[in-house]
Amino acid sequence: MLTIYSDSHRLQHGRSELIDGTLKPCFETPSRADMVLAAVRQRDLGDVVHPRRHGLEPILRVHDEGYVRFLETAWQRWSEMGRDYDALPKMWQIRRLREAVPEYVEGQLCYYSMDCGTPITAGTWQAATASVDVALTGADRLIGGERAAFALTRPPGHHAARDYCGGYCFFNNAAIAAQALRDHGMHRVAVLDVDYHHGNGTQDIFYHRSDVLFLSIHGDPRTEYPFFLGFADEKGDGEGLGYNFNFPLAAGSCVSTWFFALDCALEQIARFGAEALVVSLGVDTFEGDPISRFQLGTPDFVTLGARLAALKLPTLFCLEGGYAVGPIGDNVVNVLAGFEARS
Ligand code: Q9C
Ligand code: ZN
């Protein structure tokens, strides 16, 4: 399987994250992508190519223009005020506060963020746009007739909605790629999110649409991030009613429970008649993940890949989460190798 990768991911390197009451080094690090790339090479998954630049147009197909312009200018405006540290919000536009977009950069940072764990740095814009290009180059390959591609996207994307960042995500790589597949003649596209956390951003983007089916298997938001979305009764709205499926599972759920949910999701994808599949591939479902609580073992990821291959669809994998840095490469490549073995 072809891998698309860009070194620009390294430009996103946040300093710290608030965990258990103290500032700790960010879990979402450049070493994650390095480890995945090393495993791709070591296990001879296939060629590794650089992305082609696609510009802002495909991003603006799913993201709000004000939000995109904010991200483009945020670091410049933030550092002009003499700040040399990561831009993180300290307040949110919660109930009964003004809804207008603030003018000042710090107010905008609060307005366009969902949490305080998604640092904007000097290199964020470059890294995030390169990550989108990685996903879009993968989509190009599918449009060109390839069976599958692996977009080694970092920073990840699935928590980024139309007009906010969060959960280490700035642009929704998988959603932008799914939209690009639609725009290039694929009539029905399914996005399956297997990251431990609910793909709130992707759900937000496609919630009112029937041409893109969204399905997510994740830790129950009653106890897990992102808390405010990802419940089973969210089924889509308007035209999109019946085209959104959430499979929240209790934190600590066992492997067979997880695979049962996967089977339910795959059945829906087959029923939908998808012409292409985008997989939001987070491996933070791994038993050793430091911030998540499912129990998949490294060999289980081979099974996941094989089950996905059984759909017989052109498939684009986009990397999302996974924070056990040592095993992340094997876990990701196991999915891709499991897929290839059954293709
Ligand atoms: N104690 C992705 O996997 N913080 N994002 C959780 C847990 C946010 C994860 C803190 C987790 C976001 C792409
Ligand atoms: Zn995650």
Outline the structure in words.
The chain has 343 residues and is of the alpha/beta class. It has a single domain (3-341), classed as Histone deacetylase domain (Arginase, Chain A), CATH 3.40.800. It is built from ten helices and ten strands. The chain has an eight-stranded parallel β-sheet, with helices on both faces. A two-stranded antiparallel sheet has the order 2-3. Strand 2 and strand 3 form a beta hairpin. Helix 3 crosses helix 4 (105-111), helix 5 packs parallel to helix 6 (173-183) and helix 8 (255-272) runs parallel beside helix 9 (300-309).
Instruction: Fill in the CATH topology.
Output: Arginase, Chain A
Biggest beta sheet attributes: 8 strands, parallel
Q: What percent of residues are in strands?
A: 5-15%
Mean pLDDT: 98
CATH level 4 superfamily: Histone deacetylase domain
Shape type: globular
Classify the helix fraction into a percent range: 25-40%
C-alpha end-to-end distance: 10 Å
What is the architecture at the second tier of CATH?
A: 3-Layer(aba) Sandwich
Query: SS-based structural class?
Result: alpha/beta
Low-confidence stretches: none
N to C succession of SSEs: EEEHEHHHHEHEHEEHEHEH
Number of folding domains?
Answer: 1
- Which molecules are bound in this entry? N-{4-[(3-aminopropyl)amino]butyl}acetamide, zinc ion
Going across the major beta sheet, what is the strand order? 4-1-5-10-9-6-7-8
- For this structure, what is the CATH class? Alpha Beta
Write down how many β-strands occur, each being a DSSP E stretch of 2 or more residues. Answer: 10
* Rg, alpha carbons: 18 Å
Number of helices: 10
Keywords: Hydrolase, Metal-binding, Zinc
Protein name: Acetylpolyamine amidohydrolase
Family: Belongs to the histone deacetylase family.
Domain Histone deacetylase: 28-336
